[in-house]
Description:
This protein is α/β, with parallel strands linked by helices. Helix content is 31%, strand content 20%. The protein contains 14 helices and 20 strands. The chain has helices spanning 28-37, 86-99, 115-126, 150-153, 156-169, 186-195, 238-250, 268-276, 286-291, 295-310, 314-317, 351-359, 384-388, 427-433, and strands spanning 6-8, 11-13, 17-19, 41-47, 62-66, 72-77, 104-109, 132-136, 174-177, 199-202, 206-208, 211-213, 218-220, 230-233, 259-262, 281-284, 337-341, 364-367, 371-374, 395-399. Helix 3 packs across helix 5 (156-169) and helix 8 (268-276) packs across helix 10. The structure holds flavin mononucleotide and iron/sulfur cluster (SF4) (2 copies). Residues 341, 346-352, 372, 389, 391, 394-395 line the site of one iron/sulfur cluster (SF4).
Amino acid sequence: MADLSCDFVGISSPNPFWLASAPPTDKEYNVRRAYEAGWGGVVWKTLGEAGPPVVNVNGPRYGAIWGADRRLLGLNNIELITDRPLEVNLREIKAVKRDWPDRALVVSLMVPCTEEAWKAILPLVEETGADGVELNFGCPHGMSERGMGSAVGQVPDYIEMVTRWVKQTSRMPCIVKLTPNITDIRKPAEAAKRGGADAVSLINTVNSITAVDLDLFAPEPTIDGKGAHGGLCGPAVKPIALNMVAEIARSPETRGLPISGIGGVTTWRDAAEFLALGAGNVQVCTAAMTYGFKVVQEMTRGLSEYLDSKEIGLGDLIGRAVPNVSDWQHLNLNAVSKARIDPDLCISCGRCYAACEDTSHQAIAMLPGRVFEVKDEDCVACNLCVNVCPVESCITMVRLPAGAVDPRTGLQVSADRADWTRHPNNPMAQQAAE
Ligand SMILES: Cc1cc2nc3c(=O)[nH]c(=O)nc-3n(C[C@H](O)[C@H](O)[C@H](O)COP(=O)(O)O)c2cc1C
Ligand code: SF4
Ligand code: SF4
C-alpha cells in the first residue's frame, strides 16, 4: 500500500485527508471519533473572540439539492461560526492534541478585523499546542454582515493586512481560507502570499439559495416565513473549486504557494483530482456529514491503490496535472475527433439523437429499428451526445489519425499542432506575422 503520510506547511499527518472546519470538527467528541475513523487531520470549527458566543437560528439551517436518486449533490447552510464558549473549545483542543500527537489539528479563526482582536486570540490558540491556524475569510452569511468572513475575503488589502498581523504575532503556520464569492480568485491568494501566509485553502461555501417554498413564497430553509442566502458546498461545488485551485497553482504570482483543496471531495478520486491540480492535501465536510466519519476509509484505501496502480508516490501526484491546464487559445485545433456509438451498449433511448438534432450539429442518424449512427461528415466532436447518453462508455470520442481526411472539412488531419494564436482567421495572428 502506498505511503499516504504527508507534510503540509510543516504539519505532518498520516494521510492527506483532513476534515474541514464545520460541524464535524465542532467539539472534542467529534474530533476524537474522526481520528479513530482514520482522518489524518482536522481544522477545528471556527472560533470567535472571547465573550458571549454567536447565536444560531433555532430552526432549519440546511437546504439541499439532490440527484434523481436522492443522492445529496449540494448542501446549503446558514450556520455561523462555533456557538460554544471560547474557553471550552480551547480546553478541548488542548486535550485532543495531547492525546493524538500524530494527527494534524489546525484551528480556524474569525475575529473582528482589528489588530487587537487578532493579537488577543493567537496566544490562546498557541497555548493549546495546535499545529497551526486557518483564517476564515470565507463565511458568506451571518458573519460577513458583521464585517468578518467573506467581507474580509473579498478585499485583498484586508487579507494581506490581517495575515501580516497573524504572522507577526504567532509562530504557528498560517493557512488563509478563501471565499469563492469573488471574480478572480488569484487576487486574494496573491494578497495572502504578500501578507506572509504559509498556504491558502479553498473553497469556502458559494453564495446560494437552493430552493423557494412555493406555498410560503420564501427561500429554503425557511424560518418563520423568511429565508436568507446561505453557503453551498458538496459535490455541486467541486468544479468551481477545482478551477480555482488550478488558477492559483498555475499563476506565476502564486505558483508554489501550498494549497489545501476543499469543495465536494466525496471519494478518493475527487481527492486525487485536487492533488493533481496542485493541492498538497484536501479537506472534507459534506461527505462526512452525509456518510459519516468512516467515509475516510474508502478515501485512503482508494488513493493508496490508485498510487500503487500508477507506480507513483503521493508527492508525484501533487501538481501533476498543472502543466496541462491551459488557456483556450493554446488548445490544438488540429486534433480532430468523431463520436462513435457502440451498438452493443446502446439501449435506443434516442437522447443523443434529440440533443444533436435539436441543439447541436444534426450529426446523428436515426435508422430503421431505432439504430443510431454518427454522420462523420457533420460531427464536430462537441461531446454533447457523450454527456447526455445514459449508458456509460456507449458513446466515445475517437481521434482521427494524422493523414486521415476529415469528412466534414475535406481536409487532411495534420500531425502538427496549431492553435488559435497562429490560426489564419485570427486577426491578431496576422498582425503578429506582419
Ligand atoms: C454546516 C456548515 C458549517 C460550516 N462552518 C464553517 C466554519 O465555521 N468555518 C469555515 O471555515 N468553514 C465552514 N464551512 C465550510 C466548510 O469548511 C467547507 O469549506 C465547505 O463545506 C466546502 O467543503 P465540502 O464541499 O467538502 O463541504 C461550513 C460548512 C457547512 C456545511
Ligand atoms: S459529438 Fe456533437 S456533433 Fe458529434 S454526434 Fe455527438 S452531439 Fe453530434
Ligand atoms: S443516448 Fe446512448 S443509449 Fe441512447 S440512443 Fe444514443 S447512444 Fe444509444
